[in-house]
Amino acid sequence: MLDNLLLFVQFPPLAVDVVVNGLLIGAIFALAAYGMALVWGVLNIVNVVQGELVVLGGYVTFLLVQWGMPPLIGVPVSALVMFGVGWVLYRAIVFRVVDKDIFISILATFGLAILIQQLANLSFGADVRSVDAGLGSLHFLDGMVTVAWVKLIAFALALVAGASLWFFLRHARLGQAIRATAQNPRAARILGIDTGRVYAATYALNAALCGAAGSLAVMAWTIHPYMGLPYTVRSFMVVVVAGVGNVGAVVAAGLGLGALENVAGFVLGTEFQIAFVFALMVTILVWRHLRAARRREHLK
Fold this sequence. Notes:
Layout: H1 2-10, H2 12-43, H3 50-66, H4 74-92, H5 102-124, E1 137-140, E2 145-148, H6 149-171, H7 173-183, H8 185-190, H9 195-220, H10 228-242, H11 247-268, H12 273-299
Antiparallel strand pairs: 1-2
């Protein structure tokens, strides 16, 4: 571990390469976290199946490439397909846990995650899948820093998606209905808003964001049927740190998490990268608990 840390000191461009690539990968985490923040804020559901929706989005792009379609077409197509999947999941299962205790929603979506994992394993096999975007890479500092074009596209798309989501929630009629429902569902119903439709659209929009994230993940990284849980944990951490109603903070937290995870993977070894993610989640939850406890002490 110390040897790897010394490499950062001896070869600063190597540190730049690790951090920059981590920031760009973090954009994919932010894209998936947008959806979790939306569902958590509006439906009051911790969507444990979030990562499996990302993986399904990746498989949609994988199938499109197998059928001869250009990989980048997979981003909008995966988003559209997953929008439909999200709508069906809400109407079939998720609507039953809205307004229930939050632990019921955790158990229900956890069961849904296991079901999707097994179906994906039966349909696509347990092999790791990836898609060659065929876009090449940029090289800087005599080739010491390499950045894949697909990661730059993911970064740009995350920023565009964040800005579009912000604009949609403030200016579109459905976006305003989503905000009203998030603030007070009963008042929204009294004012004539169909909250059932708003909940379904919110969950479907979340699935579409996951689909786009999964499409970029299969081009920039890899997917397999059991890779969903790390994406769920990353999205959960980003939302816990950033809050459910701050799109800019979600972007910043996602990029920071990507950089931290990449540095940890280099220093500790890639076999400990996921362990670092889970350890970081525990640390953040303990920190939030202690912070909340201090606030309660001040109120006494």
